[in-house]
Amino acid sequence: MHTIDVWAQIITPRMAAAPWMEPLWRWTGQLDRPVHPTVQSTVTSMDKGGVSQALISAWHGPQGSLISNAEVSAQIDDAPDRLRGLASIDIRNPVKAVNEIRKWVDGKRFVGVRIVPWLWDLPPNHRLFYPIYVACIEAGVPLCTQIGHTGPLCRSEPGRLIPYLEEVLLDFPELIVVGGHVGFPWLDEVKSMTFKFPNFYVDTSAYAVRRLPPDFVAYMKGPGDGRVMFGTNWPMIPHASCLDGLEKLGLSQAQETAFRSGTARRIFKLPEPD
Questions:
Q1: In this structure, are residues 61 and 12 in contact, taking their beta carbons and an 8 Å threshold?
Q2: For the residues 236-254, what does the mean pLDDT come to?
Q3: For a FRET experiment, which of 19, 122, 163, 193 has its CA 20 to 30 Å from that of 35?
């Protein structure tokens, strides 16, 4: 069965050195050694986990580019059959940001845009984000963001779904939003948003499936059926470790297929594998 990882990144040394990354290195047992994944190590991890494709993300924050769109493009060049990109931009210059999306996001190599509001310490309904949402709609690609608490040393409040992300979806009914990292501890808000907005999706990145909250597993079988995608947050969690225990979740075959690849393929308009 094909599997698509919708949240990964090939971290640069400058991103690895960011002070707010310290809890992630500590939690994953990587605090005492530098983490500099390569395209090859990423593909090797994907192979071990049976993952056919991964969406690798650029990162941009107030401190500047952490992983540039150009670097992601070069990474895709090294494994064009296995990797697709998610662009990121500097929200402080809206015109330049929109032009950057138009430059990189073609729906084929770059299939979406990722913005992480906690990195900017701004909720997603802030006016600086709104031109980016229009650009995503124009490009016909999803906006990928983070919902729920923040593992890095930054405030979690921008990850609350209601009222912040709810207002975005009310203002932009054409925008497809993929909320990463499950949404804990606001799982009731995840459920409410799913009932309310047919263009709202969730991914399980940053959680090995065996560690998913029981309430979220119940959500996957209920209102989240067909709305949840697999993600790892590589290199924080290797692909095989992230998928370990999937059979114990009790998903139907249709639900498992949608979770592993079907929903991602449809939402990101990825071609069927040969």
A1: no
A2: 96
A3: 122
* Domains of the chain in sequence order: 4-267 (3.20.20.140)
Q: Residue 34: pLDDT above 60?
A: no
Peptide bond connecting 213 to the previous residue in cis, omega within 30 degrees of 0: no
Cα distance between residue 5 and residue 83, in whole Å: 10
Rounded CA separation 165/144 (Å)? 12
Reported as a single tens digit per residue, the pLDDT across 172-199 is 999 999 999 999 999 999 999 999 999 9
| pTM listed for this prediction | 0.95
**Residue 211 neighbours by CB distance under 10 Å:** 13
Strands (E), 101-240: 110-114, 143-146, 177-180, 200-203, 228-229
Cα–Cα dist 272/274, whole Å:
7
Q: How far apart are CA 179 and CA 182, in angstroms?
A: 7
Rounded mean pLDDT of the chain? 95
Per-residue pLDDT, 57: 98
What is the Rg, in whole angstroms, of the alpha carbon atoms belonging to the chain?
17
Q: For residue 202, which of 190, 192, 213, 211 has the smallest C-alpha distance?
A: 190
Burial of 149: CB neighbours in 10 Å, binned 0-12, 13-18, 19+: middle
- C-alpha distances in Å from residue 208, one per residue of 53, 123, 179: 18, 27, 17
- Supply 178's token pair: 């993929």
Band of pLDDT at residue 32, cut at 50, 70 and 90: low
